[in-house]
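The pair is listed for reference:
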Amino acid sequence: MGDRVINITNLALLAIIGAITFFPLYYVIVVSFTEPSEFLQKPFVLLPKHWSLASYEYMLSSKSFIRSIGNSGFLATVGTALSLVVTAGIAYALSRKRLRGRKIFMLLILITILFSPGIIPNYMIVRQFGLINSVWALIIPSLASGWNIILMKSFFDSLPVELEESAAIDGSSDIATFFRIILPLSLPSLAAFGLFYAVGYWNQYFNALLYLNDAAKWPIQVMLQNMLLSANNSDLMISSTAAQAPPSTTLQMAAVIIATAPILAIYPFLQKHFAKGGMVGSVKG
């Protein structure tokens, strides 16, 4: 009886916590699909009587909003691909014991984790390289994370050395071994780190405010911030032929759903890779 009471209590508490956690997302979805006229009459809506896509149609008719989604998509795809190549390459090189100065490189990477130069030095470096007002200012400084490099190095350390020895006997070079043998075995690890990098690039906000002066290059997060600050949504640049704008709240909720939908759609396909161990593949004798 005591165990049953504890289990019921735990389930009840978890259900309450889950409902509290899920409610904000539910409210955002409901408000974004609410008929504008109904929302004006009853601002707090839990279950609308009339569903509508007016807010989404209004948002997707904005050229600046569509452009910001394209900018974030470019950052997420190109930035993630480059970050995975750089992270995996550095981690693989550091995992090879024959690399000269390996301990020095590891020390330098650890220093980047423990100490951060700050906003002003980073801005000076970006300006020195002429990346101000360029989307590459959001990619190049964030190409690799010291923590991710160390984690991926640990994964490469767990791979059997016999794999490389067998490839070397067959005449394979280090680069060919890396791309043909090591990376295929690292797909679960790459998928997990790729999701982390993709979320980081998609959510670029503060660096975009620092380095991008042209509104045409803003990512989606900066556009959302301007929408929240602009009560009349003048920054959407809707054409004069568009219908009357829905309430600003429904537009903001629709924009939030559009901004989070790509990551929410990708995450279920990559979640299974998080639970896999660092050892993928084996040597058959």
